[in-house]
Amino acid sequence: MTLNPFGNKYIKVNLQLFAGDDKTEKATPKRRQDARKKGQVLQSKEITSAFVLLFIFVALRLLGRYMYNEILYFTKTALLEYTKIPDLYTLSGLTKLFILVAEELIKIAAPIMAVALITGLIAEYAQVGFLFTFENLNFKFSRISPLSGLKRIFSLRSVVELVKSIIKLIIVGFVTYSYIKGEAGNIFTIMDMDAIGVGIYIGSTIINIAIRICIALIFVGAVDYIYQWYEFEKSLKMTKQEIKEEYKQTEGNPEVKAKIRQKQRQISMKRMLNDVPKADVVITNPTHFAVAVKYDAKVSAAPKVVAKGQDYMAQRIKEVAKENKVEIVENKPLARSLYSSVEVGQEIPQEMYQAVAEILAFVYGLKEPARR
Description:
This protein has 372 residues and is mainly alpha-helical. It has helices spanning 29-37, 45-62, 64-80, 91-128, 146-153, 156-182, 195-236, 240-251, 254-275, 312-323, 332-341, 353-371, and strands spanning 281-284, 289-294, 304-310, 327-330. The chain has two domains: 29-244, no CATH class; 256-347 and 355-371, secretion proteins EscU (name from scop, 3-Layer(aba) Sandwich). A hairpin with a 4-residue loop joins strand 1 and strand 2.
């Protein structure tokens, strides 16, 4: 504790006590993957809606004559032919009438429905990719909770949605006004048209306005996509503690990992001890290090280390070597060098060829009289 120039005492304070659980860290790949499995993905419904509506109206413009002819044919058939159906007012007659009407309506609406479906799928796939999950269908009490509903009503997202709705109304009004203003000179030509001509002109005008509105809404959707990206990234942010917990879950508990490493060492030691009887010689320190070496010209160009150990493991290697009558040769510098620079299963380096070759020659010399 010290005094500042004004005589006040400094008090040491641990600032960590004031640290909250603010989500300041970017989401990890695992967090993003888990969110995707739950159906939490980045997407803008505004873009999807704008594109679907745009292509529907474009399709109406391109297929307008086809649909007009189909509707005209359906109307004539309904008035002239359907009334001639035998037993029209019986169950079988009504069933037949229902099937005929359904077929005609499908023929009229199918192209537009197909365009809407394909456009919607493409727009969603472009944003989200392929995703199939039932997570969003699960019952959640928060969806029917009045308190949660009030929070959603008075949230920032609600304000943003309200602003988007106002902007869309302004766009619809402005585009409609601008187009009608440009067509003001043609309105008087309607007086010279018949009923069908007037209908075609009005329908064409509505479609032209709708296409322009949809193009403008695509730009609104692009801005909304940026906002949705910001909200999505914000919702995925994590606290430092959450990252630590995720790391523990992903990498495993340190104690469990230590036990796994211990088990792996035991398996490795057992495997090494099983290979000691196959060795040509065990080179020792003699008490601290033991390295088992084997040379097979058919398998490798240089001798290999098949087992090595220090202290207790060195003693076990020597015991197994004695039990299986493998020669043990003492060479302190070579044993230490082999232990520190050559891993089990590796060939010895070139600078050790001479020293190891001399030992192997000595061992082979000892075995030669026994063979005779």
